[in-house]
Amino acid sequence: MSQSEPSALLDIDGPVATITLNRPEAYNAIGLPEARHLETLLAQIQSAPDVRVVVIRGNGPAFCAGGDIRCFVAHLDDIETMARELLGALNRFLLALRDGPYLLLTSVHGAAAGAGFSLAALGDICIAADNARFTAAYNRLGVTPDGGGSIGVTERVGPRKALELFLAAGSIDAAEALRLGLVNQVAPADQLEAVTFDMAQRLARNASDVILRTKRLVQQAARTPAAEQLEAELEAMVASMKTAAFREAVARFVKK
Fold this sequence. Notes:
By secondary structure, the protein is α/β, with parallel strands linked by helices. It has helices at about 30-45, 70-75, 80-100, 115-120, 140, 150-155, 160-165, 175-180, 190-205, 210-220, 225-240, 245-255, and strands at about 10-15, 15-20, 55-60, 105-110, 110-115, 125-130, 135, 170-175, 185. The strands form two sheets. A six-stranded mixed sheet has the order 1-2-3-4-6-9, with helices on both faces. Helix 1 packs parallel to helix 3 and helix 4 (about 115-120) packs across helix 6 (about 150-155). It starts with 7 loop residues before the first strand and ends with a helix. The model has no long low-confidence stretch (mean pLDDT about 95).
């Protein structure tokens, strides 16, 4: 990557925004400048009203190798200030995607380690190439999960398995990640882009309000009493039925 190229590229094509992590020489590791840059991409995504799906992928041989160790070394004398700024920017980026009216689709090949592992798991949908390797790696540095790992990984595999992955496990391959529920689909490496594109297009057929309401229902289900969850489903259904999109869909169905 030349010095003039940004550390992440954004391409918006109708309802699909694709973010490509673009530090292939560093396996797309995320340091302070990279976290700041990711946060700046939010404004462009949020100003594009048609975007319903955000794809995150990596350029080069890996998806994302996690935090940039060289950045940590450069700030050892004031590591807290650096960590708060880096993770603050990264967290604002991730929270906007998780809580916004978007489906986050992570497309993983090669190494997904540390924050890359967490980012992959935080996706609403994750598609992995058959050459993908998932490694929590935090315990190797004596640190705790970041990048939404304690959310995404725990939601996918449950607390017991999450603790094992974070504190005891080594790398797992794409097949094991699929078995555990960390990924939705495994594709041959040379077909990952095409499979990701197809999934993004299918997801993008959903209306933004339906995406947002469905995400909220799914995200809260595990911690919400049954009666409250059923009431939430009722309210979401009623709100959806008041939209023009619902009326148009019913009209199309009747015509058939």
